[in-house]
Structure formats: C-alpha cells, structure tokens
Amino acid sequence: MLKLTYTEGSFYLECLTQSPEEWVAQRVILALRVGQSLCVEPSTASFLLPVDLPGVDLLKAEVKRDDSEIISLCVCDTEFLEVTLRGSWLSDNSENAVGVFTTTMSDRAEFLLHKLWQEAQACASVMSE
Known about the structure:
The chain contains 3 helices and 6 strands, in the order E-E-H-E-H-E-E-E-H.
C-alpha cells in the first residue's frame, strides 16, 4: 500500500505492508477513541516527478503492463510527469486539503513509484542548497 500524507506545504509518500482496508480500519478506531471526526471517501491524488529521473521509463512500462486504472501518467511539460493515483482520501473535514491518501497497486509499481519519489526529493534538496 502507498500512503501519501499531505500537509499544508508538502506531502510525504511511504510504502506500507498493510492493506488500505486494515490501515483505514485502524485509523477509524483511533478517531473514535479520541473523539475526532474523520471523513473517508474515494478520491484521486496527483504529484509531479521529473521526467529525467532514471527509472521513469520503467514506471511507464509497468503502468502499461499493469493496465489498471489505479495509476495514470501524463507528461506536463519538458521537465515534469504528473502521476495520478486513485484510492481513498482521509481527513477530518471533506473540504480540507490536509490529510492522508491511500492506494494499492502491484508491488513492483509501488516500489518504483516510491523509489522515484525518494530520488526526486533528494534532487530537490540538493538543488535548494
């Protein structure tokens, strides 16, 4: 499972071994115990990856091979590729842009996507220094 945590200024992507159903169930139980409202709804999440990252072609091939509608790729311009995922959005308010998005796809696609995201973060931090 991929979990994307969106904050006010950024997001963090991680791979988890739990299924989305298990993770959401645990999150619902936690919200009930602490008295927090929780909105869970089907949604999409998108983020950008540099097109020149090594491994982008592997991701494109995996998306074609998998042929599911969970992930789609779209070239934005000469520098970036938009990754769009289908899954579930969890937040304390349905209008909130801060929350957690979960989805699941093939292990290979999840691994490639996570690795590419990590490489993009490393490149961005080097460029900002």
